[in-house]
Amino acid sequence: xxxKIKKIIVSQPEPQSEKSPYLELINKYNLKIDFRPxxxxxxxxxxxxxxxxxxxxxxxxxxxxxxxxIDHFFRICDEVRxxxxxxxxxxxxxxxxxxxxxxxxxxxxxxxxYGQGTxxxxxxxxxxxxxxxxxxxxxxxxxxxxxxxLDKAKVKYTKAILYRTVSxxxxxxxxxxxxxxxxxxxxxxxxxxxxxPDFVQGDTKIAAFGPTTAKAVKDHKLRLxxxxxxxxxxxxTQALDEFIKKFHKDNK
Length: 252
Fold this sequence. Notes:
Layout: E1 7-10, H1 21-29, E2 32-35, E3 39-43, H2 46-51, E4 61-64, H3 67-79, E5 89-92, H4 95-100, E6 111-114, H5 119-126, E7 133-139, H6 145-152, E8 156-167, E9 180-183, H7 186-195, E10 205-209, H8 211-219, E11 226-228, H9 236-250
């Protein structure tokens, strides 16, 4: 009997691009790939935000680590009827995140700074503007590196929890079997066990993107079969391609 990888579930929203490398995998191996976010983001209600006793207008700059942070910052401002002054400065993790600000502000009229993708790189920019008082919109599950780096640099800042990551309801997947489950965050693994506390891996292969996700797989006593990024496979789709190719060859 020939063993083949036929069904994969990816714990992320379906890619919108017609050039997604996942589509190439589907065609190459005749796969069925389902995209299903295992987590969702819920905004903190304005009443709860008020309990944090944060005065947005006491800050001269905002640090954005994601587009989600931008959405929830302007949502809260709208809900608590705060008009963000034109003098507000924005520090963004990447240029793509900075450009997303155009959804809410006249971009060319604002002072906007951005890093190259890591918080350490953004800190290089922030360190040149130490006189600012920063507001940092975050999720309840944020990287410890963010407040730690700001504390170390002795920057004046306020942490604002504006949204939280919660597990999606996956109960409809109870009796559906997948050959591979692809995880992109530790929260996705947490969601799997919240939905299915008795989950047993068995022959299911588990793929993890990033070191913290890989660690979460092992912490939950699961077997990590596919890992990315690696020097040979910088993307998850490349790692899946290599694994499937080898698996089909070994199980002819």
